[in-house]
Input
Amino acid sequence: MCAALPPDVRKGSAFPSESPFDLREAMPRKMRPSLLEELKETRAGKPEAFRTSGGEAARTTPESHRAPTILPSNQSEALEPLAEELAVLSPFERFAFRITHRMNRGGWKRFWTWSQSVFGAGWIHISTYNLMRVYGLENIEAVDHDRPILLVANHRSFFDFFTVSSVLFYRTRFSKQLFFPVRGRFFYQSPAGMFVNLVMGWWSMYPPFFTGGDKPLPEKREFDKYSFRRLTQICHEGAGNVIGFHPEGTRNKNSDPYSYLRPQPGLGKLIKASDPQVIPIFIAGLGNKLAKQVLGNWFGGEPIRIHFGKQLDLSDYIAKKDHVRTYKEIGEFVMSKIAELGEADRELHADAEKS
Output
């Protein structure tokens, strides 16, 4: 459910030589000299890195780059891709993106969030209520709900963040809207993918990335630059924005639920650029077969355990220089906190089995 931000293909570096993720094109919380260079006007008179849906540049006053206590959801318009970024997509991919992009803005986003909270969370709750075990929910209640929340979780099942979303809608009362960056190869390349995004994700599987994962599409690297800018914006501003992200980048198929894949540096780059509130989550007990998972709710399925950790203090990393090493350190730190929650689950699960 989460996009794999591509790992390095060259020794000693975390990104390809033509990485789609140029930090200068993101929207960081604090101004950096490299970002100032991006604010030079184009021939159209608009800074390309901050082009909005209204065709006007977002405000670049010093106040807009401090770390405010409250970031209203309408602080700026949704970023739009440049013509050359859209040009690398196929006609159907452009169609799928435009529809999904529209569904994740304004009144449409509010409508689909309501649908997700009632129908989507409803059927997930009905399918899991006998098995669901939730710990640490007070940690997500304690954060500032006027700022974006980045949920980072281990990844073992297709259904990881579907169950988390159900818990958030059923057991918390703060206003929220969900975003799950995904690989675009399925959800944005076929009618079936769009249908799944609608009926399972209520259009929340957005924005798409095409150059990561096992079967990358490097020819679409230009569009991924836009997707990273847009994801950075979502993580940087917007009251109630909740973003689900898997640091491992792909499902861990090891039979040991307490094993983990190496975190991808793209997570660290995203956190460094947007400085969101970060909550680690450990998930266990979910399978990958829908019918078996649903039936298990009434016929002895494995308990589903979801552990929410405390908000992570990443201030020391945010203050560091933008560098691949910093991105890796952030990813490793976040993954270590997920693993700590896993160890707590191991102890609880072992005690439950003994009893």
Q: What stands out?
A: The beta strands are 132-135, 149-153, 177-179, 182-183, 208-209, 241-245, 277-284, 304-308. The longest strand covers residues 277-284.
